[in-house]
Design a protein that fits this description.
The structure holds 2 protein chains of 2 kinds.
Chain A: H1 9-15, H2 22-39, E1 83-84, E2 88-89
Chain B: H1 10-18, H2 24-42, E1 45-47, H3 50-65, E2 77-81, H4 108-115, E3 119-124, H5 158-165, E4 171-175, H6 182-188, E5 191-194, E6 215-219, H7 222-232, H8 250-256, E7 262-266, H9 276-291, E8 295-299, H10 307-322, H11 341-352, H12 355-368, H13 374-394, E9 400-404, H14 420-424, H15 431-436, E10 440-450, E11 453-462, H16 468-481
Parallel strand pairs in B: 2-3, 2-4, 7-8, 7-9
Antiparallel strand pairs in B: 1-3, 4-6, 5-6, 5-10, 9-11, 10-11
């Protein structure tokens, strides 16, 4: 496959915030080559002037009224791996000093 | 003496409970005893909480003795795929990253089932985040096919399909993003429906690919499938993609017959390369519906071969975006011993996600990345519209489209594990239906000879958007001409 892109899993793992072992990286690199080879079929299709279709039933999408309504409360924090007194999500330091 | 509950239809059980010929508690106990004996060989359920299930049943019985209408599914156990939120219960998507996650609210379909008097009956196994066609990609281990326990039940809703096929539950819920209801229904010899995109609210469904995901039921027969589908359908203010259309009268559609119905058979599906037993069974099934008054026409889906590449480009792109939320900050698993934020994300996601989920996140990230998004993601969305045009052209000549649900019967556990593309090709006849948003069903249509016994096959019937009624009319004609749906896998009859 000369014209197609090369897909280095490590590059996209970094973008996706995924750590990969060397073994995973090698395996995915090999698999992606054959998958991309197969996916490249669509690049040969003439799509001049064709509008991309994001949703199947485009007409049905609608917005709700812009009004305040009750939502989930503090109980949503019960699933958090770490909280500050059950009131806030607790995270590692974000800004290095 | 009436038949044991597991040999009755869901409608029959509901009638008996409503008429007080049986109590919901008796029904629940009978299914729980059956699961205790039979689930270990299949691993269809990852959780069955006896006390909770019996408490639900008692509440239904109390309602009935207080003279309240218990609902159309009174006392019927409905098994739930581990991707739908049941308030206060664990919901993990078969993933380590959500292992301790408890749902903060009921999904809309769960609320509807409660209101209809159903018993929410256990969590069923699935491919992690619904990514797979075999239910092997679950952090809990694989589910087995009741027709041959060395084989897969299909996926990703394999636990829900195996449970109904083995008569461990009369009904179950699955989700279908590229075939995840219809393919396991086919491989397990039962009925599985993916409704039109938007027919059923997805509030409380943990998202995989939002423009494709749809919730639907499994049943052993078409009447039960109609009964539960009518309950699940309807617009929901909590899901802006749900469609504001009247709930279809599917039981009327079942009764109306197929006189004049035109069945389109795509020539690109029924080629000589197709497994000959699958092709013959599907042809015989279509002949049977035609004998009841329908006519067969050949239709053209010239870009059918582009369905899989288009589907996997769109689905992985959406998945990589949807699954970005699992980062160790707000939900369930967080890697320990890490003090920098970026490192925390990476390590949490490495520990929490399995191999197939990582593969798809990587592919989707690639598909959406600068420099490739135009060539892959946008291109796939353009081809998606061309696929829609193909279906619209085909439906100018027919009322439903029929063909195989799966290119093959079930396969051995482990046989496709090392070849992702061969697994992706399981969706050959189903994925396009999701891309285009159409309703589709798989109904049992025969058996192939397997090493250890018969292996079920499925007929897929597809209709234009919101025309589930045509699907049920055709499927009912098929069912009344055959007895495939009455077959129960050996060892699960009694």
């Amino acid at each position: 496959m000369s014209e197609g892109p090369s897909l280095d899993p490590a590059v996209f793992a970094r973008l996706a915030r995924l750590e990969l072992s060397d073994e995973e990286r090698r395996r995915y690199a090999k698999e992606f080559e054959s998958l991309l080879n197969y996916f490249n079929q669509i690049r040969e299709v003439d799509t001049t002037g064709v509008e991309p279709m994001v949703y199947a039933l485009e007409a049905s999408l609608r917005a709700r009224a812009d009004a305040i309504a009750p939502s989930v409360g503090r109980e949503i924090l019960k699933n958090a791996p770490a909280t500050e007194g059950g009131e806030f999500f607790s995270v590692p330091k974000v800004i290095e000093s | 003496m009436t038949a044991a509950f597991h040999l009755q239809t869901a409608g029959g059980i509901a009638d008996a409970v409503r008429a007080r010929r049986a109590s919901a508690t008796e029904v629940a106990k009978s299914f729980l005893d059956r699961a205790a004996a039979l689930n270990p060989s299949l691993f269809a359920f990852i959780e069955l909480q006896r006390d909770d299930i019996l408490a639900q049943a008692r509440a239904i019985d109390t309602n009935i003795s207080n003279g309240k209408d218990p609902g159309a599914l009174a006392g019927v156990p409905v098994a739930i795929k581990d991707i739908l939120c049941i308030r206060g219960g664990l919901v993990t998507c078969g993933s380590k990253i959500l292992k301790n996650y408890r749902a903060p609210y009921d999904a809309t379909v769960i609320r509807k089932l409660r209101d209809a008097g159903a018993i929410l009956y256990g969590r069923t196994n699935m491919d992690e985040f619904a990514m797979g066609s075999s239910t092997e990609h679950s952090c809990y281990g694989p589910t087995r096919n009741p027709w041959d326990t060395t084989c897969v039940p299909g996926g990703s809703s394999g636990g829900s399909a195996a449970a109904v096929a083995a008569r461990l539950a009369p009904l179950s819920l699955g989700t279908d993003t590229g075939g995840s209801i219809r393919q396991p229904a086919s491989l397990c010899g039962i009925v599985g429906l993916k409704p039109t995109y938007g027919r059923v609210s997805r509030y409380g469904l943990i998202a995989f690919a939002s423009s494709l995901d749809q919730i639907g039921p499994f049943a052993t027969n078409i009447d039960d499938c109609a009964l539960i589908t009518e309950i699940l359908c309807g617009v929901d203010p909590r899901d802006s993609t749900s469609v504001d259309a009247p709930v279809p009268d599917l039981r009327a559609a079942i009764r109306r017959g197929v006189n004049g119905l035109r069945i389109g058979v795509p020539k690109q599906w029924m080629t000589n390369e197709l497994d000959s037993t699958v092709r013959e069974s599907v042809n015989l099934a279509i002949d049977g519906i035609c004998a009841a008054g329908a006519t067969r026409v050949e239709v053209d889906l010239p870009r059918a071969h582009l369905a899989i590449p288009t589907y996997y480009l769109v689905a992985t792109a959406e998945a990589s975006s949807n699954l970005a939320r699992f980062d160790g900050i707000r939900f369930a698993h967080r890697a320990s011993g890490v003090h920098a934020l970026i490192e925390l994300y990476g390590k949490t996601r490495d520990e929490g996600f399995g191999e197939e989920v990582k593969r798809r996140i990587l592919l989707g990230t690639f598909v959406l990345s600068a420099g490739y998004a135009e060539a892959y993601y946008n291109k796939a969305l353009q081809v998606r519209r061309l696929l829609k045009d193909d279906f619209e052209n085909a439906f100018a000549h027919c009322d439903v489209i029929a063909g195989p649900a799966s290119p093959t019967p079930t396969f051995e556990i482990g046989s496709k594990s090392n070849d992702p593309l061969s697994m992706y090709l399981c969706d050959l006849f189903t994925a396009a239906i999701n891309l285009v948003g159409l309703p589709g069903i798989s109904v049992p249509c025969g058996f192939a000879k397997g090493k250890n016994g018969p292996l079920p096959l499925g007929l897929q019937i597809v209709a234009p958007a919101l025309r589930e009624d045509s699907i049920f009319a055709a499927a009912a004609a098929h069912e009344s001409a055959t007895d495939w749906h009455r077959r129960i896998p050996a060892g699960f009859e009694t």
